[in-house]
Amino acid sequence: MAPKKQAGKRGATKGEFLSDIQELRRRARQHINDGAVTAGYGADREKVVAILNEALATEIVCVLRYKRHYFMATGIHANAVADEFQQHATEEQGHADRIAGRITQLGGEPNFNPDGLSSRSHSQYVEGESLVDMIKEDLVAERIAIESYGEIVRFLGDRDITSRRMMEEILAVEEEHADDLRDLLATLDPTQPG
Ligand SMILES: [Fe+2]
Ligand SMILES: [Fe+2]
Q1: Distance 173 CA to ligand 2 centre (A)
Q2: Helix or strand holding residue 174 (H, E)
Q3: How far is the CA of 158 from the centre of ligand 2 (A)?
Q4: pLDDT tens profile 7-46
Q5: How far apart are alpha carbons 32 and 38 in whole angstroms?
């Protein structure tokens, strides 16, 4: 269906997609205390902060789980697998830092409170008995993160492009993590489908 013509509306007939530059500058000055958040911010800021805090909790739980697995890895394959756990822990910490940074940019407060951490997190903290168990638990956690981050990306859409891009980049790393774990599992446990 063709859009109705809005005759007489200022700027509408020129096909401009940018707001009036004077108005843009005026708004930028008016709400200077809002920092990076301008009047053009299309999302519900509180909701985005709440969602990002859940992602932050997910990352912190992932750091803790990978650290536990790193120190508990034993057996003949332990070194190679432990190195992978350590690398993932470091990358999850980097994700946590990026998400916390974005939360403060949005004028929110990153929630690092250990109380309720695991219930805020999407993925779980499971210790795992054997090396294979640990890898399986990490793979499950990564798959949960992949699902929920995908949802977050779709929710943000073009309402908060910066947060969406950050979550897309983090999502891509979680997919790499899941891939690494699947490869490790196939090496260590040949009964698993590759
Ligand atoms: Fe992560
Ligand atoms: Fe990950």
Answers
A1: 6
A2: helix 161-188
A3: 25
A4: 444 444 445 555 677 776 777 677 667 778 887 888 899 9
A5: 8
